[in-house]
Amino acid sequence: MRLEGYLERIGLQGARPDRAFLDRVVLHHACAVPFENLDVLAGRGVSLEPDTVYDKLVVRRRGGYCFEHATLLAEMLGRLGFTLDVVAGRARVSRPRPEPATRTHAMLVVHLDGEDLLVDVALGARGATAALRFSADRQLTPHDVRRVLREDGVWFHQVEQAGVWVDASETRLEPMPPIDMEVASWYTSTHPDSGFRRQRMVARALPDGGRVTLADEVLTERHADGTVIRQELGTPEALAGALREHFGLEAG
């Protein structure tokens, strides 16, 4: 695992363990490394062994889901000089309260200059593109407005959409060691009720403030000016072309 290789993958140079550089890492990571579950759908399985994750996401320029992103980011941020913890959470995308969500999400808490910051980049189209303070105040990121609100002992990571706060994830800040990530990842990638087994999910933030997502055969481009373009990919060739053009991925 080479820090220089990771920085080249996300298009950054230098290394400074400060807030400004942390935000740059999070933004560049979200724009360069897609969120995707193609290996889960293909039945290949998901390894969280750090060297394997590095080979997949950096060397082979693939993407992955939250456990893979958390594994890579934790290692690389540590090498950049940041102090952090991996914590367990629950993704609330498409699961409005009070519907329960499984404890199958991983995120990072970075400890910097006496403050804790949430790094929650791997949430598909709702991944944050900057580190977030644990505060109910509105926080402007390169792509949207966020906050981290505490209610009944739970921290809710929320995004503002059309003037309404929508839950993206939640956490009680419980540590998530590798063995716990392995168990949660096994459930997520193999259980027949897991959404990752039923639908193709690919997402990437765009440098201009927009996002592009693929849900099964529907490609959606959301641009920073509010323009939304949806396209139904009706053939395997169109799907392969979209994966290559918009996400840098090969369909196979």
Outline: globular
Roughly what fraction of the amino acids lie in strands? 25-35%
Arithmetic mean of pLDDT: 95
Order of helices and strands: HHEHHHEEEEEEEEHEEEEH
Report the major sheet.
8 strands, antiparallel
The helix/strand class is alpha+beta
- Uncertain residue segments: none
> What's the quaternary structure here?
single chain
Rg from C-alpha positions?
Answer: 17 Å
Helicity, in percent?
A: 25-40%
Count of DSSP-assigned helices:
7
Terminal CA distance reads 25 Å
Main sheet: strand order: 5-4-3-2-9-8-7-6
Structure description:
By secondary structure, the protein is α+β, with helices and mostly antiparallel strands. Helix content is about 30%, strand content about 30%. It is built from seven helices and 13 strands. The chain has helices at about 5-10, 20-30, 40, 50-60, 65-80, 180-190, 235-245; strands at about 35, 85-90, 105-110, 115-120, 130-135, 140, 145-150, 155-160, 165-170, 200-205, 210-215, 220, 230. The protein has an eight-stranded antiparallel sheet with strand order 5-4-3-2-9-8-7-6, with helices on one face. Strands 1-10-11-12-13 form a five-stranded antiparallel sheet. A hairpin with a 4-residue loop joins strand 6 (about 140) and strand 7 (about 145-150). The longest helix has 14 residues, at about 20-30. The chain starts with a helix and ends in a 5-residue tail after the last helix.
